Amino acid sequence: MLFFLLKRVVYAVPIALGVTLLTFLLVYLAPGDALNAIAPADAPAEVIAALKHTYGLDRPLPVQYGLWLARAMHGDLGNSIASGRAVRAEVLAAVGNTLKLALLAAGAGVLGGCLLGAVAGLRSGSALDRLATLLSLVGVSIPHYWLGMVLTIVFSIALPWLPAFGAGPDSAGGWVLDAAHLRYALLPAATMAVIPMGIVTRTVRALVSDTLGREFVLALRARGLGEFAVFCHVARNVAPTVLAVGGLQVGYLMGGSILVETVFAWPGTGFLLNTAIFQRDMPLLQGTILVLCLFFVALNLLVDLLQPLLDPRMVRR
Amino acid sequence: MNSSYWNKVAQALRRDPVAMAAAALLALLLLAAWAAPWIAPADPYHGSMLHRLQPLGATGHWLGTDELGRDMLSRLLYGARLSLLIGVVPVAAAFVLGTVIGLFAGYVGGAANTLIMRTLDVFYAFPSVLLAVAIAGALGPGLSNSLLALTLVFVPQVVRVAESVTTQVRNLDYVEAARMSGAGSLRILREQILGNVLGPIFVYATGLLSVSMILGSGLSFLGLGVKPPEPEWGLMLNTLRSAIYLNPWIAALPGAMIFFTSIAFNLLADGVRSALELRA
Amino acid sequence: MNTPPDTVHQDRGGPAQPLLQVHKLKKYFPVRTGGWLRQPSYVHAVDEVSFSVAKGQTLGIVGESGCGKSTTARLVARLLPPDSGKLVFDGEGVAEFRGLALRDFRRNLQMVFQDSYASLNPRLTAAQSIAFGPRVHGVTAHAAQQLAESLLARVGLEPRQFAARYPHELSGGQRQRVNIARALAFDPRLLILDEAVAALDKSVQAQVLNLLQELKAERALTYLFISHDLHVVHYLSDQVMVMYLGQVVEIGPVRRIYDTPQHPYTRALLSATPSLDPARRTLQPPLQGDPPNPIDPAPGCRFRTRCAHAQAVCQERAPELLPCGDAPSHQVACHMQQPGSGDSQAVAVPEFVPMALATGGHA
Questions:
Q1: Is the pLDDT higher at C65 or at C158?
Q2: Short-list C358, C338, C343, C167, CA closest to C259
Q3: pLDDT digits (tens, 9 = 90+) for C331-353
Q4: Furthest-apart CA pair in chain C: how many Å?
């Protein structure tokens, strides 16, 4: 089994490399010059050439990739063309904010989903079950950026309870877990939580209902075990999958946060991506995508490695 | 390949009231979108600044007006065209492309299969929203660019399903019997394998419809998709954002359309899945 | 059928030429040990198997699961490429230079599989499945449909009822009949039946077996019948070949094999089938010991770990398949039967009491 785990880790390496290659190439899909952001179109040729040389844009593509990769492995993601600041610092700060939001949202979503799904699975076919199914349908069908707007309308405008934008009372700092900042996180987290909640509700409901129908539950009941004890057994069966799904959801939320962060002006990676795209700031764009994807790959790997430990039956290929 | 299988699937679907309701809703929407030039009360591109952000039920504008004074009902109707397009076209394209690649990879197996699947694994390493945004961001705004970006995001997913099913079917005895008959690979793929493989792929693809619509509108929302002044629900959400302080419910309307259409797509997809499972 | 004169199905070799000759077929499957650096191990699925089948005969192949019978069938049918070995069909080498082209070979040889459900495309009707083969070879759709219907009638399925049915609308026995009809659509000369009746109820089995006998007589077919069911093999076969761990251990006329089996494994197989006669009881377990690992087997006779008569010579040398004594058609691979092999029993053959099979043990 150890060999399997090792194999899985080794396998992640070419994937990660492929990700770096794709990230690097994506940016070169862009029509138009990378320098449009800083040099006006009618700048003299020598200026353009000098700028190109500074940013290494006059070397052949594979060389550029190699240099970029080598620097990235040392943690140097270059400097943002627009702001001049180190990409790494900006990205890491943003990652921190998004991660906190994603964890909050995933946590709330998974918990809510477990509750709803468990209730639905236990009372299969009842009105409660149907309600839970409806809620999970809503969860997967709703455009979450719209939901963000609606929640803003309700809780920020109609009822002035919560702030509509930003991560904290001062715009400079990031988000920390304290009373002042919690209010700012409520709406974005609630918005983001809907997605994992929908998925987890479906998953848990199906698993619980399926497990309850299995023979070993019948055997437990026949031995006189009370409902709560039966539920604990069911929970143990369902837990590994839920943890796996939940873990992956954190990854999806991190990767897909751009929409919600745009609505709430949350200073996270999504917001950074938005800025980078519109300013055509290639180093920032590359750096952000790279960090996000590698994080996603690492998260997938972690989930894959933990699964067999939690559930001996499932050794995922 | 026989039509009787799909006939039976359609029959099962017809008996599913929820799926039928969803299908009816979608049909109605499609009809409205197609008939927009005739049934829209006003010009979706021009409006009067004097009448901007009129509320619901205003005279002459049942659903109010947007921030440039354009009639919301007309914009929503015209917007349905683009939004539905964004929902359906990438999925249809990914369905065709993904099936072809997946069938090929699943049938030939071996090194070619490994090469294809491992390359796609790299795409899989990107969360779909991020990939769509990255590609659309790189290509630049525009409808065709966002359609392309979405297709590229969905193709690896469809290939995965197609390859998996093809690999299972390929090892069954009746395919061996077909090989024994001396039939060429293309013939076997077309007559023996395809019919058995399309079902699950189709189910998966219908599940992607709502994702495509939400993601596509999301790209427009970010300014990476459809460009103004084209009416598209996601884009309308973007341009109306600043209006939520003045007339919140108008701003929420386009999103509501996306929401309901997406629910309809999902219910239909669920129905298709159930119908196919019954036939299996 | 308006087809040009059929040279593919002609009898070229004459009555004395065996229809099928197999020389030293070999197929090893690599075992994925998971390490890239270690030498790969191989499962010796089929290890230098040779036999021949005369025209109009039925060769039964028996053995336990995993002895290589199905792999041998697939090698003969060329569904798998052999690692080495030669296939000669009616005197011509198959897929060799100046030999028989693979495509023509395929039209002479067909296979009926065990799992009747998996061997029919669930999306095609019975008639469509049967018609597929002829259509591949250029027959028009209409003519193929007619052929399919006539074949359905021949195998006992009324075309009006069964032609448009799907596999899930047929019973197991009916599906196997469709499979047989499909194989016959090629007008083959050799039919390989890989556990074709194993999954059927006994009564249905009997019907299908009788159908096979009739067809064989009508169309001058030759059968390769693979089974683990000794009764059925006894009923159908003219010759029997016993396989163990990828090798042929005994081959000969059915009567001789069942009455006077020479190889200890054959004897064990036959005595494992209980007798209906209470006077004949199985006194000792037919086989002892554990089956050896099919991966990279040790030298010497592969049966020695379970053989009650194993001796030193059995570990040193693998026995060859040689005729035993008075009957040249009966060959066995055992040191005991081979004079001068060094086995202490080589000259005297232990007595064997024929069990129930020879006396009406079959349905």
A1: C158
A2: C358
A3: 888 877 776 666 666 654 445 55
A4: 68
CA distance B2 to chain C (A): 7
Provide the residue type at A309 as one letter: L
CA distance B146 to chain C (A): 38
Bridge partners, residue C239, by sequence: C59, C253
- pLDDT bin (cut points 50, 70, 90) of residue C363 is very low
Q: Which amino acid is at C175?
A: R
> pLDDT tens for residues C247-282?
888 899 998 888 888 888 888 888 776 666 666 666
What secondary structure does DSSP assign to chain A, as a single string? -HHHHHHHHHHHHHHHHHHHHHHHHHHHH-SS-GGGGTS-TT--HHHHHHHHHHTTTTS-HHHHHHHHHHHHHTT---B-TTT-SBHHHHHHHHHHHHHHHHHHHHHHHHHHHHHHHHHHHHTTTSHHHHHHHHHHHHHHHS-HHHHHHHHHIIIIIISTTS-SS-SSSSSSS---SSHHHHHHHHHHHHHHHHHHHHHHHHHHHHHHHHHHTSHHHHHHHHTT--HHHHHHHHHHHHHHHHHHHHHHHHHHHHHTTHHHHHHHT--SHHHHHHHHHHTT-HHHHHHHHHHHHHHHHHHHHHHHHHHHHH-TT----
Which of B136, B110, B134, B138 shows the shortest CA–CA distance to B122? B134
C contacts of B5 (beta carbons < 8 Å): 123
Alpha-carbon torsion (A236, A242, A244, A246), positive or negative = negative
The count of other CB atoms within 10 Å of the CB of residue A105 is: 28
Q: Tell me the residue length of chain A.
A: 317
3-state secondary structure of B47: coil
**pLDDT tens digit string along A1-45?**
677 778 888 888 888 888 888 888 877 766 655 555 555 666 677
Residues in chain B: 280
At C96-134, the pLDDT tens digits run 666 667 777 878 888 888 877 788 888 888 999 899 988
**pLDDT-derived band of residue C11, with 50, 70 and 90 as boundaries?**
confident
- C-alpha distances out from residue C2 to A64, B113, C109, C148, C153, Å: 68, 43, 22, 16, 21
Is C182 within 8 Å of B177 when comparing Cβ atoms?
Answer: yes
SS3 state of residue B271: helix
The partner residue sitting opposite A30, judged by closest CB among B138, B214, B256, is B138
Q: Do C123 and B1 touch (CB under 8 A)?
A: yes
Of the candidates B1, B172, B181, which has its C-beta nearest C133's C-beta?
B181
Nearest Cα residue to B89 out of B135, B179, B154, B138: B154
CB atoms within 10 A of CB A107: 16
Phi-psi region of A131 (alpha: psi -120 to 50; beta: other; left: phi over 0): alpha
Q: If you average pLDDT over every residue of chain C, what do you get? A: 80
DSSP at C114: S
Of B5, B180, B184, the CB nearest to C111: B180
Identity at A206, one-letter amino acid code = A
Task: Give, in order, the Cα–Cα distances in Å from A226 to each of A115, A120, A222, A230, A233.
Answer: 20, 19, 10, 6, 11
- State yes or no: pLDDT of C356 exceeds 70: no
Q: Which amino acid is at C146?
A: Q
Superfamily of domain covering B17-36+62-277: MetI-like (1.10.3720.10)
pLDDT value at position C105? 80
Nearest one of A289, A267, A285, A269 to A277, comparing CA atoms: A285
Q: Please give the ipTM for the structure prediction.
A: 0.85
Question: Can you read off the two tokens belonging to residue A287?
Answer: 């750096």
Report CB contact under 8 Å: B221, A293.
no
Do C259 and C268 contact (CB within 8 A), yes or no?
A: no
Residue whose tokens read 């030293």 = C24
Mean pLDDT value of segment C233-252: 90
Q: Please tell me the distance in Å from A145's CA to the nearest CA on chain B.
A: 7
